[in-house]
Amino acid sequence: MSIDKFMKGSVAGWMKSSGEHADIVMSTRIRLARNLRGHLFPIASNPEDAKKVDESVTNALLNSGEKGYEYMRMSEVPLLDRQILVEKHLVSPQLTDPKRNGAVILSADETISLMINEEDHIRIQCIYPGFQLENAYEHADSVDNELEDRLPYAFDEEFGYLTSCPSNTGTGLRASVMMHLPALTITKQIDRIIPAITRLGMVVRGSYGEGSEALGNIYQISNQTTLGKAEKEILADLKNVALRLIAHERRSREVLLSKSRVALENKLFRSLGIIKYARLLPTGEAARCLSDVRLGIDLDIIKDIDMSILNELMIFMQPGYLQHYAKTDLTAEERDIFRADLFRERLRVKHVEKEDTEE
Amino acid sequence: MMVCDNCKERQASVIFTQENEGVTTERHLCEKCAFQSQMFHLDPSQEPLSIQQFLSHWFGGVESMQPFQQTQEGIPDGPTCPDCGLTFKKFLDIGKFGCPTCYSTFKERLPRIFSKLHNGHTTHVGKIPVSFNELFAVKKKIEEIRAQMQQAIDAERFEDAALLRDEAKALKQRLAACQDGGGDNDVN
Predict the structure, then answer these.
(1) What is the DSSP letter of A94?
(2) How many structural domains comprise chain A?
(3) Are A334 and A322 in contact (CB under 8 A)?
(4) Last residue of a domain, one of A230, A254, A278
(5) What is the pLDDT of residue B77?
(6) Does the annotation list A65 as a binding residue?
(7) How far is Cα B78 from Cα B91, in angstroms, rounded to an integer?
(8) A53: annotated binding-site residue?
(9) CA angle centred on B32, ends B28 and B38, rounded to 5°
């Protein structure tokens, strides 16, 4: 059994480990909310109107000359595939509700995903690996310009882009960076930092969206304010906060190394042991161990594991992916077994399995 | 996942408590059914604080939390959006607009809400779509031409006034085309 082929087709561009500060900032995401004049927002809309919106947006983008876009109507996508799109962060869980008349248009490299009939008629999303706020924004902005050229946007002189939720009114821009902050978490500094960030008009969330805990010490930092600030200003403010967090995290890592090196090494190597040899690997434990191993690689304590494999496993450990690979529905316990099997295989410890079977 | 009490299909995301002759019933609705439903008010104890609760607490929930001072019927519905039928009270309950026209319907009341949500800001200063820039430019040009036309009439230069009238007419058609969508239909 080799998962290489599956991984190759399943890992989106942003999951590859690259870009500035890629050791701490895992990915950058830009989202623009847009709506069309003359149509009710999806919350109040009916299927016929939703279909018209879908057709207008699809025609506008697919005729834009840029090739490689793929259109998928959510009601026609199998349940498991929808779950995988969510786990890859390419669509929101809300969009996958078949009653929503939702659709998604993906660019070939999955950098751009355009959701149709989510909370707003159009949500342009651009995900880049590492810390690339400007690049990701410029890309999303260029798609926005293409659409704007062909579609009548709902826009107001005073309020800007008109969105269904008043928390998006204005620029409709939500910029987020996904950050791995294990040292700030271990030293509990994160508990003081989160309220401070909130006061600066930013939001901190766990990596799997609203309300989720910070699984594997991964935090998503986004702007909260979309009105009264220009796009450049929103990006600059978020960038400043992220840079300060990066500096804090690096300093905490140095302190940990100098003051409690053995304890730290012990913790990280134990986690490596677990993901290499465990036979049952629940989601929470897998996420915690991956975070430790990632920190170990960043600190040059763990040397024989490639970071890109770790990134893949972070995505791959999720239920939808596991079941997709297993080609069948799995119970929670079966998933934990399957997850452990795949981790061992991916981390290439086959010789241990051989020894096991010889015993 | 909790399923909506009404459609039994979508995920419930809004909890409403309904009081009828002293009996309180709780309804779990999805956003869409909440939008379409009539006569409800929010359960203030619902956690975590979502946008609809935030709005309801700040702007609409005060009365509903003080039932002895004011009855539920006493809360005014406010203006109603002609396009989607959303009342201002319902907007505060669900925390979402139903269509672009809601913005002009509730225009006077929005700065207060935006100020709370956006750190004191109430006006957009970011990107403007090119088509709207064009729209503003055409509107301004029409105003200018009308002023010139009035001057021409006052000075009894009627031939000039007629030319200006034709120009204004063409621009008005162009404006209509802009408002109709995109800048594609070039009238000139």
Answers:
(1) G
(2) 2
(3) no
(4) A254
(5) 77
(6) no
(7) 10
(8) no
(9) 70
Residues A93 and A204 in one domain: yes
A184 shares its domain with A309: no
| A60 vs B58: CA distance, rounded Å | 40
What are the structure tokens assigned to A268, written together?
């990280």
pTM recorded for the entire structure: 0.77
The full length of chain B comes to: 188
CA B107 to chain centre: 7
Q: Which domain holds residue A335?
A: 260-358
Instruction: Return the residue matching tokens 């300060």.
Output: A244
- Cβ contact A167–B51 (<8 Å): yes
Instruction: Consult the annotation and say whether A31 binds a ligand.
Output: yes
Report the distance separating Cα B52 and Cα A263, nearest Å.
46
**What pLDDT does A194 receive?**
86
User: Same domain, yes or no, for A320 and A197?
Assistant: no
Q: Counting one residue from A and one from B, how many pairs have CB atoms under 8 Å apart?
A: 150
| Same domain, yes or no: A80 and A145 | yes
Is there a single domain that holds both residue A290 and residue A217?
no
| CB B108, CB A213: distance < 8 Å | no
User: Is B103 within 8 Å of B81 (Cβ atoms)?
Assistant: no
Residue of A nearest to B52 (CA): A165
Does A232 share its domain with A159?
Answer: yes
Q: At which of A232, A254, A276 does a domain end? A: A254
Provide mean pLDDT across the span A118-124.
96
B126/A167 CB distance under 8 A:
no
Identity of the residue in A152, A156, A228 whose CB atom sits nearest the CB atom of B118: A228
Averaged pLDDT for residues A137-152: 93
Say what the pLDDT of residue A356 is: 45
What is the maximum span of chain B, computed from C-alpha positions, in angstroms?
Answer: 77
Nearest one of A176, A168, A173 to A222, comparing CA atoms? A176
Is there a binding annotation on residue A198? no
Separation in Å, CA A199 to CA A90, A196, A224, B55, B119 = 29, 5, 10, 19, 10
Token pair 């994160």: residue: A190
Name which of A41, A151, A225 is nearest B181 (Cβ-Cβ): A151
Residues A140 and A238 in one domain: yes
Residues of chain A with C-beta less than 8 angstroms from the C-beta of B100: 35, 37, 41, 154, 156, 162
Q: Please list every residue in chain B whose beta carbon sits closer than 8 Å to the beta carbon of residue A158.
A: 107, 123-124
Q: What is the CATH number of the domain that holds A240?
A: 3.30.590.10
Q: In this predicted model, what pLDDT tens digit does every residue of B136-179 receive, in sequence order? A: 778 878 888 888 999 999 999 999 999 999 988 888 887 777 66
Q: Which residues of B touch A152 (CB under 8 A)?
A: 131, 179-182
Nearest to A44, CA basis, from B29, B31, B38: B31
User: Which residues of chain B are modeled with pLDDT < 70?
Assistant: 1, 16-22, 37-75, 178-188
Same domain, A71 and A185: yes
